[in-house]
Predict the structure.
Amino acid sequence: MDMFYIGFRDPLFSIIIFFTIIFLITFFSYWWGRYRRKENSTHLDRFLEQFRALPSENELKVLISSGELSQKSWMLLAASYSKNGDYEKSIEIYNELLKVSEKENLFEIMFILGKTYFKAGFLERSRQIFLEILKYNPRTPQALHYLLLVYEYMRDYQAAIDVLEPLDELGEDILLDKTYLTALTLLQNVKFSEEEKAQKLLNLYKENHKLAYMIFEFLFRVNPQIAWENLHLEDAELLTEVLWRLDSKDLNLDIIAKSKYLQELYSARGDVTLVTESAIFELDVLIGLQGRANATLSFEYVCKSCKATNPFGFTRCSACHAIDSAMVEYGLSKDYIKEFSEENNSFQ
Ligand SMILES: [Zn+2]
């Protein structure tokens, strides 16, 4: 037992005490360092969070009513929220600004608020705002244009057509809007059969040669024969996708033979062999391939007014709201449908 006993005055005892103290100091300084680092990082996170988080509705109320920032700065901030797709915050700011703004800015803010409601898809609120503006300023074409769009998106085409009257009185060009809304009303009407709609749309087209894409896309679907007979060959390029997807049995070879473009298009698809080359690269490649590769045309639509692109054909641009502004652009892509049908056949 004595061999394990270390005397109080033994030098070994002092050494043990010395190392114990060193160990305790190291241990506590390590944990203290860890604790401080964690504290600092939590504090920094909390500090940065203030800038990441959006101000709450109540914070906004206080900030806007205190008048520390100018109204213009708030408008810029709201516009940037809206641009980034945070319509909710943008709407909150405009609503608060309305409460504190002077009378001369009131309608300007209301107009922007109405536009933001429209972009965010709150059509009813947007409608109420534009109606309120027009109640006091009936001769505001911008508000009337937006009211027309709101009714159009609500599919209340008759109400949209009614808005055209004051716009016409203000000297605005309403022909395209009127034709487009008439066409939409026709398509929505359940009393007409598809054939009747086709005939009425064709009559509309004959009046002013507008909405070629919208009308002929419908006609080629419902009655390809009358579509071919009435197609203006200068519209053929815009309708390339519709014509490209047309069933072989619905082709009108007499009309195709009259147009160089249509000859090239259907030679590229392999229905006819009327030409051996094309000035259009994509068609030239497909004519040259003669169906030996799994390639087809792919389509994209560009708005002539705002240059926004869309994978589908459109009549009213969803970005700038221009009508009949679509322009088709095409490229070459893999023919997945052909590949899929070939794969299915090989399993049979
Ligand atoms: Zn556009």
